[in-house]
Every structure is written in structure tokens, then in C-alpha cells.
Amino acid sequence: MDDGALLLPHGSSDVVDGAVDYAGRPASRSATGRWISAVFIIWVEIGERFTYYGVANNLISYLTGPLRESTATAAAAVNVWSGVASMLPLLGAFVADSYFGRYWTIVGASLLYMSGLSLMTLSSLHSSPCGETATTDPADCAQAGQVASFYASLYLMALAQGCHKPSVQAFGADQFDDGHPAERAAKSSFFNWWFFGLSAGILVANLLLTYIQDYVSWALGFGIPCLAMTAALLLFLLGTKTYRLYPVRTESSTNCPSDGRRGDLKRLLPLVPIWATLLPYAVVFCQSPTLFTKQGASLDRRLGPNFELPAASLQVCSSVAIITFVAVYDRLLVPLARRLTKRPSGITMLQRIGAGMFISLVSIVVSALVEMKRLEVARESDSMSVWWLVPQYALFGVSDVFTMIGLQEFFYDQVPEAYRSLGLGLYLSIFGVGELLSGGLVSAIDKISKMGGGDSWFADDINRGHFDYFYWLLAVLSAVGLALFLCFAKAYVYKKIDNPN
After folding, report:
1. Largest CA distance in the chain
2. 166 vs 88: CA distance, rounded Å
3. pTM, rounded to two decimals
4. d(CA 296, CA 494)
5. Residue ranges of the alpha helices (H) in 205-344?
6. How far is CA 21 from the centre of its chain?
7. Half-sphere exposure of 7 toward its Cβ, with a 13 Å CA cutoff?
8. Which residues cross the membrane (predicted)?
9. What's the structural domain count of the chain?
């Protein structure tokens, strides 16, 4: 990530077309943007992901613990909340692209984050009157005000994430000029290191916050993310003088405002089939913080005689796999692929996405096989080591390096420049719809499988349930989604990039 690599071609202008600096002056290529700005923004993303996943990854434990919800109810609630949080970037992107701009949307979203997390921390200070004892009615254990304020804080946090996520990612990519060959090549690397950074934030959250929440205090476990978000906002403001800003495009700024905007929106239509075929991948994606965590809670998690690994911290395996493989991909695989394909990025964006979808399919098949083995061991009244879950978590992480980064670059690169936040909002909405579909599937299967007095696939005692059946269903859906994706990807025509240099 060396700015020295981004040297200006002889005779080229030092002004970045369409960009201004913090004072509204034409942005100087040598004084703004590039990695000097991107590093600030990547650190902000590390803080934001630490904050978000510090709550999300152990949320099911809080709902089934202090709030005493059933496994099926809690899993559905987590999926619906995550789905809404992933759909709201469409709204946040629209606000950023049409009204406030990305910089001010990021600032406002950070303040919303801090408000939601403050309310969440205060809510968790009110302990349940019957502690961890079981009850058939969650309202008997959790005061109505506590439940209401907790869910209000959750959805305030979802709104903040919806405004923050597409804006900060597009803002980071804005620091590299598509019209400058060296900067365009650096942008592809930016998406890799961006994902490396957010995965590092998730890793620290899994290592630190899950332990604090499970063994020290939920209030402290929610309060630390609030402080982290405050630090992230201050760091973002510190880099203000280095940023390249792109003014919001209004109708008065175009010669044919209505026709131009309609034409731009029509260019989004070819993305819809690709978007739709990713939904099964998104359904698989949301199992890690829910059913994978419940699996882990039932296994032998002892590390030595006096320490037990928190179930949610197993997601560290995915984060470690991501952090390791991003470096391998960017420094080894991409240069090798460049020599073979002569493409700056090594492979196309859709090839990268498809490879990740295949690895995700393998991951959910492995998950089903491991769950079958776990149930077999449980029937023999024996315990199974938690390390059996490492392969599915690791494969899950490697699939993210391909699919998630490929999607981020694809939906940023292939939309009109004026709608790049919206493009990233579309990418995030894949996971929003996937979360909602997952929540609907869990609720429907829970009701159907209990018909006739049988046990639910998602029974509170998971040794009487059948997560394996659900995983096999997801494997079939993933295979269908991958087959359709390959058909649409083969027919897709990439947008041409105008390059004045």
C-alpha cells in the first residue's frame, strides 16, 4: 500500500476530475486520496465492524439467556433483525447519493450508532428478575421495559449500520480514480485490504467481547462497542483534510436530468439476475452467528481445567481464515493469475464470486456431516470436541474472501458513478433478504416439523432436533443458486470504463 506506486504519468493533470477537497477546492491528486486517505477509512471500518459484530455475533446468547427466548424464536429474531439491518443500506445509500453526500452520512450514522449502543448498555443493566431459570413465558423473566428498550436499541443500531456501511465503503473506493491506471489497479487491492480490515475488527470482537459478555458483564460487553464507535468517528474526522469528496449530483447539475437518471437506473437492471442468484449463499451466510453458535454450545469447549471457550468465539476461526487468505490471495494468487490471464485483477469479478459460492456449498455440506456425527455421539451419551466445527468455519471464511470481496467490487464498479453507494446498498441487501428468508424458513420448518407432536428441527435441546436436515436443505438451495449464477454470469456484459488517460 505504497503511495509511491501511484506516480502520475508525464504531463497528466494534478487535479482529480469531479472531486473536491474539504474546503471545496478542486482535489489535488498528489495531496488527496489514495492510500493515505484509504488507511483512515479502513481503520474506521475496523472500529465499525468490531462494534456491529460485538453485538450481532453473541446476540442469540443474550436472547436465549437474560431475555429467556426459545432457540427457534431467538434464531428467527436474529435473522429478522440482521435482515432489516442489511436491507437498510438501500435507504442509507439513497440518502448519501441524493442528499447529504457520503462524508456527512458517515458522520450522522456514527452518532446514531453511539445513541443505540448507549441505550443498549443501559437496557442490559436491568437484570432479569429470575436470572437464568427457565420459563415458558419470556415476559415472566424479562421486564417489558427492558425488552422494549433492548429491541429499540437494536433497530436504532440497524438504522445506523444501514447508513454507515454503504457510505463508508463507497467513500473509501472514491479515494482512487478510475481514470488513472495506477489508481484503478490500486482500487482492486483496496477491496482486498478493506475486507482484511473488517475481518480483523470481527476477529477482535469474537476474541474479546464474547468472553466479556458471557463471563463478565453484558453491560460492559455492550459498552465497549459504544466507546469503539466513538473512537472510530474521531479517527474519521482526523483524516478530513486528506479526503476526496464528490458533490451530490442534483437534477439541476445535469443537462437532461430526468432522462439521465432514468438511463442510469436502467443500467442497474442487468445486475438483478446476479443479485437474485446470490440469495441461497446469503441464507447460508447467516447460519454462522445463529445455528453454528448453538452447535458449538453443545460441544466440549474446555481448554484446560479452568477455562471454557465461549460458543460465539468459535467465529474467530472464520476471521482467522479470512485474514490469512486475503493476504495469500492478494500477494500470491492475484500476481499468478495476472500472468496467466493478463487481467489487472487476475480473474474477473464474477469468476471470483462463483468460486466463493462453490466453497460456501462445500462448507454447508461439511456442516451437515459434522452435525450428523454430533447427533450420533450425543445418542451414545458421549461428548464431542468443539474442534470438529473448525473446518466449516474455515471454509465459510475462505468463501467470504472470494464472494464477499467480489460482490463489493462488482456492485461498486458496475453501477453508474452517481449511484455507487446505492450499488453497495444493493450488494448488502442480498444479505438482508437472505436473513429474512432464513428467518422465514426457520419459523416455517419449526411449525411444520412439530406437527403430530414430533420434535422441531430447532428444538431447544438440539440433541432432539435436526440441524443436519436444515443444512442439507440449504446445500440443495445453494447448488441450484450456483447453477443459475453460472448461466447468468456467462451471459453478463461488463460495463466499459471510460479512461481519459
Report:
1. 78
2. 10
3. 0.73
4. 42
5. 210-215, 218-238, 257-266, 271-277, 279-285, 293-297, 316-328, 334-341
6. 29
7. 5
8. 76-96, 102-122, 193-212, 218-239, 268-292, 312-332, 353-370, 390-412, 424-445, 469-493
9. 1
